[in-house]
Amino acid sequence: MMREAFVDTATRFLDDPRTTIVLADISAAAFDPAAARYPDRVVNVGIREQLMIGVAGGLALTGQRPIVHSYAPFLVERAYEQIKLDLDHQGVGAVLVSVGASYDRAAAGRTHLSPADVSLIDTLHDWTVHVPGHPDEVPELLRRAVCGQGSAYLRLSTQANTRAQVGDGELVVVRDAGPGAALLVAVGPVLDAALAAVADRPVTVAYTHRPRPFDTVGLRALAGAEVILVEPYLAGTSARVVSEALTDRPHRLLTLGVGRADLRRYGSPEDHERWHGLDPDGLRRSLDAFLRSAG
Amino acid sequence: MSFNLQTSHMTVTIATSPPGPPLPGPVGAPLERLRAGRDFGPNVYSTIDVLWVLYDRILRVTPQRVDDPDRDRFLLSKGHAVAGFYAVLAAKGFLPDDWLDDQGGPDSRLGDHPDRLLVPGVEIGSGSLGHGLGLGVGTALGLRAQGRTTPRVYVLLGDAELDEGSNHEAIAYAGATGLANLTAVVLDNRSASHGWPGGAASRFTVNGWTAATVDGRDHDALHTALTGHDGHRPHVVVAIVTGGDQP
Question: Is ipTM > 0.95 here?
Answer without folding.
Answer: yes
